[in-house]
Design a protein that fits this description.
3 domains, four-stranded antiparallel sheet, Chitinase A, domain 3, alpha+beta, 16 helices, 16% strand
C-alpha cells in the first residue's frame, strides 16, 4: 500500500486494494513485472453509464437488504454497496483527502461493483481459476502488510465484523480479476523507445511533483458533517492551538497520537509515509510547498476537517526511486504441471530448505539442477534489483528477510519459489538504470490506459438492470 496505515485501517481498506497482492506482467525471465499494475483501480465508470436517480425521501419501511442492480443474471445488494462505501471512506479519511458527497460516492461505488461483476463473470466463462494455495498466499501477504501473522489477521477481521469466508472470497475475486486483466491486456500493450522518451518529457515538464519525494505527518481535527458555525470556529481554534504547539517545538508525533482524529494516528503518530508528491492529496502538497524538513504548515481544511501538516522528509530525484535500497537474492523456481502439482512443488522446495539449512545441500547447486527459469545457470542468482522489479508476493517475502535467510516456499503466477536474500545496499541509480525505471513506469501507464478502455468495453457488453438506488 502506498500510505502507511494502522492494522485496522488496512484491514478495512484491503478489499479495494487487494489486487496488489496478485502478480503483475513480467519480463521474459518470468519475475520482473511492470510494477504497480496490481494497484490499478478495479473498475472505472463508463462515460454516460445509466445510474439510479437519487431516492426521494419517504418513510416507507425497507427490508434489511435488497437488490440495487442485476448484472446479467447476478444481483448486487445494498449491503454490498454499503460495505464497499465504508472501506473507501476509511481510506479517504486515513489520507485526509476530501470525501465526495455521499450520493455521488454511492453512485460511483455501485458503478464500480457493476464493472467488477461483469469482469468476474467473464473470468469464469473463460475458465480462469484461482486455487486455495493462491488465496492462502494472498492472505499471508495481507497479514505481512499489516505486520501480523495469519491467526492475528483473522482475529482482527473478526473484531472488525468481517467474516473469514467473505474475506477469502474477496481475495479470490480480486485474484481472478487480476489474472483476467493480465491475459486480456499483456499482449496488447507494446512499448517503444519513443514511448519512454515521451514519458520522460512528461516527467520533466512537472518536476515539482514527479521528482519530489515527501514524508509527511498530519493531525486531523475532524469537523462533523452538520456542524454549526460555532462548532466549526471552535474546532478551527483547536487546530490553531495544535499548530502553535507544533511550531513551538512540541513533539509532533506525540501531539498526533494524543489529539488527532485521523484513523491510526495513535499508532503512527500521524505519519503518512514516503512517496512522490504526485501521490499525495493536492491539499497536502500545496500546504507544505516551500517548507523545509521539520516545517509545519498553516491550518488547512478538507472535507474531513482541519489539518496541521509537518514535513518529516523531503528529497529530490531525477525519477521516483532514484535513491533506492537494492537487494541481491537467489531463488529456485518450480513450475507446476502434469508431472508435479503445486502441493508437491511446495513440499519439494520445503525439503530443499531443510537440507540447505542443515548443511546437507548447497542452494546454488540445487538451483542449477532444479530451477526452471533463466537464473538456473547462475545458481538462481537474480543479481541486484530495485524495488518494484518483482511480483508483489515475491517482493513482499524478500523485504521480510534478513541477509542469508531463506523464506518458506511461496506461490506466484510463475510457479513456486524458494527465495534467499543474499545482501542489501543503498545506491543511486545510473542514467541507464533510471531509464529502465522509466520504461517500467511508462508501460504501467499504458496498461492503465488500456485497462480503462477494456473495462469500459466489458461493462458496455453486460446487461445491467438498475433497480432501487442504494441507501
Amino acid at each position: 500500500m502506498s500510505l502507511q496505515m494502522n492494522s485496522r485501517a488496512r484491514v478495512l481498506w484491503l478489499a479495494c486494494a487487494v489486487a496488489s497482492v496478485a502478480a503483475a506482467p513480467a519480463a521474459a525471465q518470468g519475475l520482473r513485472p511492470t510494477p504497480g499494475l496490481g494497484g490499478l483501480p478495479l473498475a472505472r465508470p463508463a462515460p454516460g453509464a445509466a445510474l439510479p436517480a437519487p431516492r426521494p425521501a419517504d418513510n416507507t419501511p425497507r427490508p434489511a437488504d435488497y437488490i440495487v442492480a442485476v448484472v446479467n443474471s447476478e444481483p448486487i445488494t445494498n449491503n454490498e454497496v454499503r460495505l464497499r462505501l465504508q472501506r473507501i471512506e476509511q481510506q479517504l479519511a486515513q489520507q485526509g483527502a476530501p470525501v465526495p458527497p455521499r450520493a455521488q460516492l454511492e453512485r460511483q461505488v455501485l458503478e464500480r461493483l457493476i464493472s467488477e461483476k461483469a469482469q468476474l463473470q467473464l473470468a469464469r466463462e473463460t475458465g480462469i481459476k484461482v486455487d486455495e494455495a493462491m488465496v492462502d498466499q494472498a492472505e499471508l501477504t495481507i497479514a505481512r502488510q499489516n505486520q501480523l501473522d495469519v491467526p492475528e489477521l483473522r482475529r482482527q477481521l473478526k473484531a472488525d465484523g468481517l467474516s473469514l469466508p467473505a474475506f477469502r472470497e474477496d481475495l479470490r475475486n480480486q485474484l481472478l480479476l487480476t489474472r483476467l486483466r493480465e491475459r486480456e491486456l499483456d499482449a496488447r500493450v507494446k512499448l517503444t523507445e519513443l514511448d519512454v522518451d515521451q514519458f520522460l518529457r512528461e516527467q520533466q515538464a512537472n518536476p515539482e511533483l514527479s521528482a519530489t519525494e515527501l514524508n509527511l505527518a498530519h493531525i486531523l481535527v475532524a469537523v462533523p458533517e452538520n456542524a454549526s458555525e460555532t462548532q466549526v470556529d471552535a474546532l478551527r481554534a483547536r487546530a490553531q492551538r495544535l499548530q502553535d504547539r507544533a511550531r513551538a517545538g512540541d513533539d509532533f508525533g506525540r501531539l498526533a497520537r494524543e489529539t488527532s482524529d485521523a484513523p491510526g494516528a495513535a499508532e503512527t503518530g500521524g505519519l503518512v509515509g514516503l512517496r512522490t508528491a504526485d501521490r499525495y492529496p493536492p491539499l497536502f502538497v500545496q500546504a507544505t510547498q516551500g517548507l523545509a524538513e521539520g516545517g509545519v504548515s498553516p491550518v488547512v481544511r478538507s472535507g474531513a476537517g482541519f489539518h496541521v501538516i509537518k514535513v518529516v522528509q523531503s528529497r529530490q530525484g531525477g525519477l521516483p526511486g532514484m535513491n533506492v535500497t537494492q537487494s541481491r537474492a537467489r531463488h529456485i523456481l518450480l513450475r507446476p504441471g502434469p508431472q508435479l502439482n503445486e502441493s508437491a512443488a511446495r513440499a519439494r522446495l520445503a525439503d530443499f530448505k531443510r537440507r540447505i539449512e542443515a548443511g546437507q545441500a548447497d542452494f546454488a547447486t540445487l538451483a542449477r539442477e532444479n530451477s526452471q527459469d533463466a537464473s538456473a545457470k547462475e545458481g538462481g542468482d537474480l543479481g541486484w534489483t530495485s524495488p518494484g522489479m518483482f511480483v508483489p508476493e515475491f517482493e513482499e517475502t524478500l523485504s521480510s528477510l534478513a541477509p542469508g535467510q531463506i523464506a518458506e516456499p511461496i506461490v506466484s503466477r510463475f510457479g513456486v519459489h524458494l527465495v534467499q536474500l543474499l545482501e542489501r545496499r543503498q545506491t543511486t541509480l545510473t542514467e541507464r538504470e533510471q531509464r529502465a525505471v522509466a520504461r517500467n513506469l511508462a508501460r504501467e501507464k499504458k496498461l492503465d490506459e488500456a485497462y480503462a478502455r477494456w473495462a469500459e468495453d466489458v461493462r458496455g457488453r453486460a446487461y445491467v438492470e438498475l433497480r432501487e438506488p442504494p441507501q
